[in-house]
């Protein structure tokens, strides 16, 4: 099948070309994000392969459907950027990569926790500056602390296992309980309780209307003073302005994020010689107890290979007219 890649980066070309030797699709890589403005690039391609910050709203879907695209292959797990009812009305197939490496994301969440707790970003710069002082670098033992896991699916469970290894007490909140998490000794509690008891709160649930801004001014009032919040899931889970207020008041002691609600304007691009116009982001990253990475939690060699393999296999299924196990459909 002819596949147009949007938001394509050098590492996408490498991982997809390596795996495509076995699939033989015709892959063309475009750097721009897919939006209604760039939809014309997809003309004549039966499939588009898109990532998290491409915009597949009704207008974009109509535009690419008119010029022959019938398959939306997401090379990611989340599909909140696709208007599924519109895709369904247009008879388009939407497929995704539900799991490629839960370890990658869980391990990155732990990386953020350790970076914030042990102030590794400061320590690194100090030592490079021949400053061997320890003042200002004091951390805490994770052993014996309470870690709240919000969303205990594949990534949440991997994360919980790592935290279990640290000797933390584990609390969980999810709309569905995971028996593996129970076996690990995790106690499921209402969200308010998890927020109130946890020293570290890590978000691992999807962005849905029901989870949008689940961390807001009201829920931040419930957290333990000085607690750490880590979000490697989706930016929209958090009301960033409320987090900024909680950081200013000291209620929130640390904030680590790999995602940001308005990230599509910033992430995956080099702004180092431009002026960032997003004041909220600039204020957020000015706090010394905040660490932000730019949606890199998934970014491991293993994950990239798995993403390429599953995406191309999904396209094969659709091309062969077979039922694809990774199809995404609008809610009934
Ligand atoms: P998953 O489907 O295995 O688990 C998600 C869990 O969230 C499920 O147990 C589900 O029951 C739970 N959930 C659903 N609604 C909820 C609610 N209202 N409150 C609490 N929990 C709820 O998904 P996963 O593979 O573990 O991925 C989790 C999220 O991680 C994804 O949705 C995605 O947003 C994010 N993610 C981020 C990156 C990254 O690079 N930063 C990479 C992959 C995934």
Q: How helix-rich are the residues, as a percent range? A: 25-40%
| Order of secondary-structure elements | EHEEHEHEHHEHEHEHEHEHEHEH
Structural class: alpha/beta
What is the radius of gyration? Answer: 21 Å
CATH architecture of the largest domain: 3-Layer(aba) Sandwich
What is the makeup of the main sheet? Answer: 7 strands, parallel
CATH class of the largest domain: Alpha Beta
Number of helices: 12
CATH topology of the largest domain: Rossmann fold
- Are there runs of 5+ residues with pLDDT below 50, and where? none
Our measurement of the CA-to-CA distance between the termini, rounded to an integer number of angstroms, reads 30 Å
Strand residue percentage: 5-15%
Global mean pLDDT: 97
Overall 3D geometry?
Answer: globular
Helices and strands, with pairings:
Elements: E1 2-5, H1 10-20, E2 26-29, E3 47-50, H2 58-66, E4 71-74, H3 84-89, E5 93-95, H4 102-118, H5 120-128, E6 146-150, H6 154-166, E7 169-173, H7 179-183, E8 187-188, H8 191-197, E9 200-203, H9 217-220, E10 227-231, H10 240-249, E11 252-257, H11 279-284, E12 290-292, H12 301-319
Helix pairs in contact: 1-12, 4-6
Which features characterize this protein?
332 residues, alpha/beta, Rossmann fold, seven-stranded parallel sheet, 12 helices, globular, binds nicotinamide-adenine-dinucleotide
